[in-house]
Amino acid sequence: MFFMRNRQQWRSFFSGVAVTALVFSLGVPALAATVRTLEATYSGIRITLDGREVDPKDANGAAVEPFAVDGTTYLPVRAVADALGLEVTWDQERQTVALSTPGGQAPVPEESASPYSRTDPVPLGTAHTFRYAKGDDDWTITMQISESLRGDKAWQALKAANQFNDPAPTGKEYVLVRLSAKVDEASDPDQAVAFHLAGFDLYSADSVQYTAFWTVVTPSPKFDGRVYQGGTLDGYLAFLVNQSDPAPKVVFGADYTGAGGAWFSLT
């Protein structure tokens, strides 16, 4: 029930680890993400590290106690992470507890690690967290398209925003979306992310890129600006698509080859 390894060994073991549970077990894999009801036994289990007793506490400083389930001992993640000098964060979207060394950087997930892709973009109203890299800097961003207007509804909103906006050409129509982007984390807190229309690539339902660049004045607020770690930008963007396109989509952060990035459905 007690730690028998030295501090450096435990640091090496936990560095960069992500476990899909709020607690972890000694000697067994983490609990599955499926919610289950368990009968826990609290019997005054102690934790020691290098012979010194650890007083486990939660994020609010309240005491928490290890417990046992069916003979297996479980320890509070935050308390153990604090004792080992590790950082701990909770990823709500992935239902994952992430442990890392101070100043350490988690690897950028592979494209396949995301539940969304070019062929299965993020649906409207769904917040999606992803990594965005540019040069030597990278950020963790949570983005969501919360509202979408298309066709005449979009045009009426654009015309009300600015009477000099041009109507869509024949065979085309506008899609007006409201979206938000929060910069959750930055490799360098002094480096901001620049959000603007040109940062998005527009594609048709069959994944053919729209190459024409068409701009109009959107309603306020406009989705345009620089955001530092902890900040959120919210506003409108307008896109021009074919009237016959059943499911246009955009990607943010793709490289020059079209690889990577976060894909979002526009309708």
Automatic annotation (TrEMBL):
Q: Which InterPro entries match?
A: Cu_amine_oxidase-like_N, Immunoprotect_excell_Ig-like, Mao_N_sf
Report residue spans for region: Disordered. 99-120
Q: Which SUPFAM superfamilies match?
A: Copper amine oxidase, domain N
Pfam families listed in its UniProt record: Cu_amine_oxidN1
Q: Where is the Copper amine oxidase-like N-terminal domain?
A: 63-105
Q: Keyword annotations for this protein?
A: Signal
- Its signal peptide is 1-32
Instruction: Give the stretches traversing the membrane.
Output: none
UniProt protein name: Copper amine oxidase-like N-terminal domain-containing protein
